[in-house]
Fold each of these.
Amino acid sequence: MLMASCLAHPPGSGMCPVNSSSSGTSTGSLWQKGSLYGKPFGRFVSTASQGGGQEVTISSGLSNFVHHGMIFVPVGSTYGPALFDVETLRGGSAWGAGTYAGATGARMPTALELDVAEHQGREFAKVAKRLKVTS
């Protein structure tokens, strides 16, 4: 059974894509049983550009998890000053790690973007451990 999850979602015009949204609505039996209540989840994204809706993509998908009573574990300010650096092109925010793939999807994540993603994973695992949750 799913106990803790950190999910990636590509945006669809800044919104959670239909196939991701419908997977949330297909978990009714888990919702009725309360199977996911109190379990942590996190989100990370990839968009084509800076205006691609990284934060709104993460926030627009929260309702499916909240209905289950799951606990959102964002990056927050735990990464430190580099997360607030506006001089370096990088995806992600306090909502979750991210990258810019470019219009063709050819751009690869930078070392900073990968480091933020790894940091998110480590911090997520710490929270799951404190909650005594297994994956």
Amino acid sequence: MLTSQQIQAMPEYKALRAARRKIILPLAGIVISAYFFLILTIGFFPKALGVSFIGGVTSFGIAAGFGLILLCFAVTGVYVSYANRKIEPLVKAITQKAKGEL
């Protein structure tokens, strides 16, 4: 069994940290920016979000909120796909080395 310092010194661990950072920061930035854009629009331009589509009962605000939810689902899908391709193999390699299987 390896110690935490030995695991942190492994090249696979360093690659894991870099891979996670590479995907997490942009995706978090996208979601946070979209959320704050919606909140600021609600705060400063509430009438613009109250306008309805083609005279219907659904307003731009409802559509923007629904769009934010869909964006979060899409970001989650991108992260899961990336994690399955890049992060999970690194985690498996680190786990195997830490248990002494390699």
